[in-house]
Amino acid sequence: MAIAWTGLAAHVTAPPAVPSVFGGSANVIAVLVLLLEFGMFRQALLRDQIRLYAAQSAAVSVLAVIVAAAKNVPELYVLAALSAALKVVIVPLVMRRVLRGADEEIAGSGTLGVATTVLLAIAVGAFGFFTVGTLGIADVAPGTAQVARPHHAGSFDGTGAAPPETALGLAMAVVLVAFVLMIVRRDVVSQAIGFFTLENGVSLAALVIAAHMPLILEVAFLFDLLVAVVVFGVLIRVHHGRGQSLSTAELTRLRG
Amino acid sequence: MTAVFVILLAAPLAAALACLKAPVRACQAVSVVAGVASFAAVVVLVPAAAHRDLTLGRYLRADAISVVFLLATSFLYAAVAIYSVGYFRSDAPPGVSARYARRFYAGLNLFAWSMLAAPLMSSLALLWIAVEVTTVISALLVAIENTDRAVEAAWKYILLASAGLGLALLATIFMYAAGAHVLGQSYDLTFTELLRAGPRLPPTLVRLAYGLAVLGFGTKVGLFPVHTWLPDAHSEAPTPVSALLSGSLLAVSFYAILRYYQVSVAALGPGFPQGVLLAFGVATLLLAALYLFNQGDIKRLLAYSSVEHMGILAIGVSFGAPIAFAGVLLHVLAHAAAKGNAFMGAGVLVRKYRTKLIADVNGGLDLLPWSGPLLLATVLALCAMPPFGIFRSEFLIVAGGFATSKNAAAAVLIIAVTVAFLGLSLSANRMLFYPATKRLPRGEPSAWMVIPVVAGVAALVLLGVHPPAGLSELLTRGAAELRGLA
Q: Hey, is B184 helix, strand or coil?
């Protein structure tokens, strides 16, 4: 009994755990990715949206490097390089090429004003963030799993740092806010970029909780993204070729 | 068996590459050969898969469930390849050039390739990738006619399906994280490993992954409320593509859900996974049954019928009875044959009457000596009339519902299917039995467009009257796998 009490007392009085360098930087980058996602709402120029996407992808690639160093997963360096090449360079290039033929530069304004949209996005993002927090996903790993199977000790990361639950919550927030972005925007380019940022959110989540995924699968995911980007590009061009516009406001023929 | 895997993965791909350069006639021949070869290869797999799991290397694997989906896809692939010959030969629609035909054939073969690859993947990660590839290729095929409506449908389809698959990717990641607790940090996410890990997987992560997977892949299955792209894409795609979309693509996405279902049942027990599918299934079925009334467009009508049948599949799995599982797998096969047939028959009507509007089509039985009666038989099959396969499969599913005392859900299923029957048969009646008002010559546009439909009706009768012994064994084993026994 006494032991239990001292244990409890130690638990209560212990100062809040200082995040490790890895945990801290992961969280900072996740916040950065989310802020860039919110920046999309403000940014009406299509070219600048593409720039924001490139910046966001760069942040995700940097996180891959940090995870690679912190958890000692050398394959992640390769992944970081590939992801940077694809998402920071190639995808923005493809999207700019797609834009070249179009004389529109301003995103089709949404049904809602910027302020309303941002408020909505904050609500949705907060929902995602706090829901993941209450699920206690990260607790499962080092706590129960470790006790039950000691040979997988430190299953979350080799450094013994607290699992970055915050970063996972932020990744969920990015995914949900990306949905808001895709819903409120009224032109094909912004909608496509909304989808690409959704993929960034998922990549963020993957780096946080599935960092050790075999490289071949990760590379396959990236290749798949490349194919998707090219097809999005083709369809955007076809759309523009037919309607001489990037707007989706006219897409109301098919109903019921 | 290695040869079979190689044929399945290489033949459609080779055909697609050949079609990029070859003249149109050669494209047609190559596609028919690839389609028939794929179907033959899968038929060879059937007896083997009925007794054991087949694997090739680390990443290829086929069990009874995958072979059922392969069978459906390869049958439709062969049927559609034959049908397309007529589709291009009989006074083709305006705007059909050799360039269009080559693109169409390359896309068709590539699309079939991706759908044949998906059930062969041993890893949930690779399965996701294959499903995503089916999406992007089919989106291009939906847009191929380059009309305003086709482009609109393609855009809505790719955006919705990609967003849904974004969620499914998140599900894949969560499932990976769940497995990492048991299987070690770095593993291939293969589905057998996860099944074996079963109860040791952390339940919260598995529940999250399963929910996201049902919603994400459900977007492509056409589950309510994320089905909205489906009627658009099905109605605007070229007819052969619509047949593949409806009979195979939806089924392949459903296959992905089934895999998550198996892992979730192993980890969580049947309650939660079945409850989720029941809710989605009932909502989907009710919505589709009501939408079947008052559809003005033949292909949209058939698209909503597909939504209805996907709802039936989801409900069938949620019953959890062995007999219902066998019914679900049989339903996948029968629905592929029936819906492929229905779209191909509708394509003949569209070609004959030059319209997709049901109100402008009449006298089908008089004007089309073959396609008219065949379409009638197909519609009856879709409405689960005996002696066709869907009657047997829906009967098994409903029996499974009563066997597990899920009486309310089984009753809803019966009522909704009856409502759907009314909606579908009213429109078919108008198109086939009303006296012809247009002066059109009696005759078929092309024999190539009739042959695969005859094969489809024959398959439906076979499935309904007396499924071959090998197939029954396959379905039994598949049902056992779904119960976690095999």
A: coil
DSSP B44-99: HHHHHHTTS-EEETTTEEE-HHHHHHHHHHHHHHHHHHHHHHHHHHSSPPTT--HH
- Measured between beta carbons, the chain B residues lying within 8 angstroms of A251 are 152, 155-156
- Tell me the three state secondary structure of residue B237: coil
Give SS3 for A106: strand
The CA angle A51-A55-A56, to the nearest 5 degrees, is: 115
Query: Which residue shows structure tokens 């090429």?
Result: A97
Helices (H), B237-360: 239-244, 250-268, 271-291, 298-319, 322-353
Domain count, chain B: 3
Cβ pair B177:A209 closer than 8 A? yes
Residue pair B166/B216 in contact (Cβ under 8 Å)? The answer is yes
* ipTM tops 0.85: yes
State yes or no: pLDDT of B216 exceeds 90.
Answer: yes
Are B377 and B483 within one domain?
A: yes
Any B CB within 8 A of A227 CB:
yes
pLDDT averaged over chain B? Answer: 92
Q: Select from B248, B269, B290 the last residue of a domain.
A: B269
A174 vs B164: CA distance, rounded Å: 15
Q: Nearest to residue B460, comparing CAs of B333, B359, B288?
A: B333
Spatial CA neighbour of A48 closest among A107, A115, A131, A88: A107
Final residue in a domain of this structure, among B269, B301, B329: B269
Q: Report yes or no on B369 lying in a domain.
A: yes
Is B86 in contact with B452 (CB distance < 8 Å)?
no
Q: In the prediction, which pLDDT does A125 show?
A: 93
Instruction: Measure B141 CA to nearest chain A CA, in Å.
Output: 11
Average pLDDT over residues B400-407: 92
Cite the beta strand spans of A142-203 per DSSP E.
none
Q: In one letter, which amino acid is A75? A: E
Give residue B441's pLDDT band: very low, low, confident or very high (50, 70, 90).
Answer: confident
Which DSSP state fits B404? T
DSSP B325-373: HHHHHHHHHHHHHHHHHHHHHHHHHHHHHS--BGGG---HHHH-TTHHH
From chain A, the residues in CB contact with B153 under 8 A are 254
